[in-house]
Amino acid sequence: MACSFFESKPVTEQVCQIKCPQDCVVSKFTPWSQCDNCIRVNSTKLRSIIVPPANGGTECPPFSEMSPCLNCSDSYTYKIGPFEKCIPFDDQKIKKVHPLIGYQRRTIECLHSYGPSVNLRYCTDSISILDTNILTTIQTCIIPQDCIVSEWSAWKPINGSCIDHLGNKRPGYMTRTRSVIQIPMGSGKSCPELENHFEVKGSVDTLCPRAKWMTSSWGECETSSGSYQCKAGLLTRSAICVEEDDGYLKPVPESKCPIERPLTSQVCRAQCNLDCTVSQWTVWSECKVTDCELYIRRRRTNEGTGQRYRTREVLTPSEVHGEPCPHLSETQTCDPQPCYQWNVTVASCILLNPNSPHQCGLGQAYRTIACINKFNHRVADSLCQELAEHPDGKEDCNIPCPNDCILSQWSLWTECPNLCQEGHKQPAIRTRYRTILARSSQDGAPCPPSRLLQEEELCPTTIQCAVYVWQTDPWEEPCEATDMKKRCGNGVMKRHVNCYNEQGQPVNDQRCTLDVKPAETKTCTVPCPIDCKLTEYSDWSPCTTTCWEAKQVVSVQTRQRFILQQAQYGGAPCPEKLTEAQQCTDLPLCHGYYWDTEEWSDCILPPRVPYCGKGLQARNVTCKSENGTSVSFNLCIRHSGLIPLISKPCYRSCNDECLFTEWSEWSICVDGCNGKRFRTRSLIDDPVKNVPLHCRNRMLYPIDEFERCLCDVPQPVPVGNWSECILEMSDDPSYSKGTRSFQGYRTGYQAPYEGIHAICGSGKQYKVLACQNDIGEIEPASHCSHMSYEEEVCIIPCPVDCVMSDWSPWSDCSTSCGTGAQIRYRHIKQIPSDGGRPCPKLDDVGMKETQTRICRSDCIKFVWKAYEWSMCVSFNKTICGEGSQTRSVRCEAVSADGQMVDKVDSKKCQAHQQPVDKQSCYAACVSDCVLSDWSEWSLCKESCDDNMHYQVRKRQIMRRPYPIHRCNSSLEESRLCLKGDNCIEYRWEFSEWTSCLINSGLDECGVGHMQRHAICKNHFHEEVEHYMCEKVLGPVYDPLVASCQVPCDTDCLLTHWTSWNECSHTCGLGTSYRTRAIVQEPQGNGRACPASLQQHKPCLNQGCYSWVVSPWSECTTEVGVCGYGVQTRNVTCVASNGLPVNASRCPPDLNVVVTQTQMSCQVPCPGECVMSQWSEWSDCHVSCIDLNQGYNRGIQSRSRAILLYPIMSSSPCPDQLWESKPCTASKCYTFEWKVTPWNKGNSRSVTCLRSDGLEVTGGCINPKPRVLLTCDPPCIVSHSYCNDTNHCTCYPPLLPVYTNSGHLTSCLDKVSNQTAAVLVSTPKIQQDTSLGGSGAEVGVSVV
């Protein structure tokens, strides 16, 4: 507790890992080796390590087993010693010794198969050597000469230190080289390193040159050919790979730039030949005074003083050569409500004689007078005096007496006619009337004459028929800068806007409404000049030739730069020349270096007797320039090919040998490349001694040879596979005429499938042609043919599009009077198939595509017009009493807006019921109460459904009765508004929108307009005249014309194909491809994009030739020989097919030239330790438990085995027989026992298998299953057998019965459950004293 006060108690337990022991696992043995020779006197079988032992596991068993070779118990072997150093000849007797040739010696012993050295005759007697020269102790050789190289060149930088785009510092590198002055000869030292470099870590902050894509400015919008002119097009630009270094952009090969190339095309909208479309006219505005001062001046000159106008708006503007927009406003002159007028209020009439007995007669009424403007606001009286005199302050009046004539009130003024109808040339007049209600008596005031019962005046608002319009000129170009000191920036464009009459003549601008005058200026931007922008020049290209030769065209090299931005708006223009060329002046002379070879020396033999057998010939080879100066070997190797042979073997025959001349050169090919060629030699006759007879045997010593000619003349042959089908005819950026509207395909026009973007049609497949000869040398087709490819026509089937017929003519208007609709249709001519474009949406009934539009018919309706009733005339011809009155009823022509046009014959109104023109009445007598006519019923409120509204009409007393001054008649009446009776509701309804018509139906897609018309209906759903709704509801304010758009069915729009990229292989058969990208996905029913955006084509730049250095051969000696031998390897120039070709085909490589192709080696002799080669590295091993827990660190190993143990006097074998290294495992293995079924001999095989089926030893952890099947005591009970656990049991379906000690006694039938029934024989059970008591029965158990 005390310690815990100061610090926490340390943990007493922690997790640890107890590593399980890993036993060594080895493979199964190989078969026994053969006892073919007696160099090794035993046969061996080997196995290799699979898993090394670890953590105390069982060590590895021996990797080899040996068995003595019975036939090698008493054998002998030559032991060849190494050749001594090659020394020059010093014997003056040997003439014409070449300085490169010397001789060398070696020792030869004879060994017993168990190792001791014995007399040489034992080997001579027991070993038959085919080549006796193997046993020579002296031979000629090339005197060793070490490789001699020049001094190192000065250090040159490859690149400097810099910082990459990620901020990491990249070191620079310096390099130096040296050349070979003398190649190594014989056993001389090989050449040292010929190139060296080291890393330079600078502290500079220079950015590393980095390649990136630069793009030029966008070009103009280009469209594909086709009948439809308004479509999407392509803007294109160039992508140039440049390298940025110190702010300069230098073009470099595209392979240096990132793989993702920037998009070089984008969609644009091409200008279309679209006509301007406009909306319908708005309703005429009210006649308004635009300028009250002008109004006063015009009133003085009796001119129109106001204006009214109507407008329309542009739905689709005109483009390119389309029809321009018409005028958008119209103005008419009219006489409006005056700007100022006298407002007069009259008081009650006051009798001049207040004492009159009848309280009637003349009187005066006073007026209240004020000058008001059109907003009913009082203004100065002087403003009204300009227009009219100041009214009097009072007026005469009359209070009717009982005997006076009584007149009705004035009626409403008649409607003013439509002044602009033909035939109306007179001023517009309106009229009002009054009638006599009661005649006067003899002493009363008389009635006025009939002419005074009617008044006429000019219509207060006179509208002139002349129309004036604003017309605009095109905008003046160019845009003018507002600040003249600057060349660019904000500017203004101007145009002339003038007022014209209907005849196109200019008039004063005051004639047109200034409120709707189009703008005469608009802001614009004066673009600033943009100078041409170029990249820097690229690096100079390689010269057209690598060396200079007399009479040849001077070699040149070029460089180029690219335009990033074209000059615009007056900027500095781009140069016309973007490529520069220069002559290559520092090229070496062609064939300026050559190999200078001397004659071959005589065949030089070593100093031995007899002086015959194998020898060497040599010659001097020097690299020289054309002036005879010796130069470095490098130059000749680079320009003249490989070094010629410096030495070659030769042979001098001995006395008993046949002598022949050297073989002649091969003859020319007989029968061409497919024929044969020959060479010959002849027997040399010795004049001193006779030539042995066997030398003339042509079977043993042929004197002529032939071989099949390998044709070195290249022939064009196709190589590789066919390319895909490539449609390549033109370079149209549309994809199958890609952006024409889909409807354009429906009118019977079927666009051709052409262009490299086409999706179908006739194309070509390509197979590379190459020039190849029989040797296997292959070159591009240009070396033997004028064609680079073999071509084959291919067909890609085309889909069939829907084709529609032409539109039918527009039908007649659905109404002969007013606004209606017209319809047109078209039908399917060709049903689509094979993925063609589908047909448009069709009517469900007629299976046609329909379009509608609004139509209007100017119409005149004929209606009855009833005028005011005449005075009531009594029947008895008296002045009062019952009588009748009449009125004028006539047939009039009325326009659609309810305006009376003319009086016509009554026959034209026969379709309508004629109003009555006569009715009964009562004429008031003298002293009767006289009332005015009833006023019109007041209007019911708009809703007639609640039955709570009333109509009212009134009348007034025109003359009071005498002597009683009260009228008993009602002066006001009311009636309930009843729907369908005196209450009529009206509402505006609208027709369906018409089809969206583009360019008045001439085009199929784009921006257009759709229309509808208003319909006036009553609550009986009857269509009535518009003016009825306008009277109650006012004009229509909802839009009747709306802008709309029909999207063009646009095909997939693709970029241009890129150029074919470089061949994927610099040599041999490769693939070139080009790509394109999707600029715009298809819209509507446009064609889908192709599945592949790449095209591939095989290509061949040149044949592939490479130097192949074979592995070292095994150490070889003659049969029955051990000791020092030779290992060799070949350096061969081979083609891509693996066949050897002329060494000049391979690139000159100094390292290959100086490659050692022969070296000394040693074959173990009897009595020495012999080891096998190292095995291959095993698979990476990790336990599955570890791998499942995420630990993939494993181990792999290899082993070698002892093939022969050494004798006591020889060096012992090495101790290390296996080695291991860590590795990363991707999978794990398990080990399990695999057993075969028991055979008739009661045995089976048991093997340990790895989970991949490899048979191993030591990997299985579980106890090994038994191999032999034995039961003790034996299974003698009938129907019993010995099972896998070595116990006796019964064959099914019998049940075994055992004693307490586990011995089988019987097999029980489980059906009868009786042991006796199945006992065939029961063995005698011996007494077991351990069970207690003599003769005791043995207990049994049934299992």
TrEMBL record:
Pfam families: TSP1_ADAMTS, TSP1_spondin, TSP_1. It comes from Potamilus streckersoni. One of its GO terms (biological process) is actin cytoskeleton organization. One of its GO terms (cellular component) is plasma membrane. This is Spondin-like TSP1 domain-containing protein. Residues 276-339, 532-588, 802-843, 1052-1104, 1169-1228 form the Spondin-like TSP1 domain. Keywords: Disulfide bond, Glycoprotein, Signal. The keyword Cytoplasm does not apply.
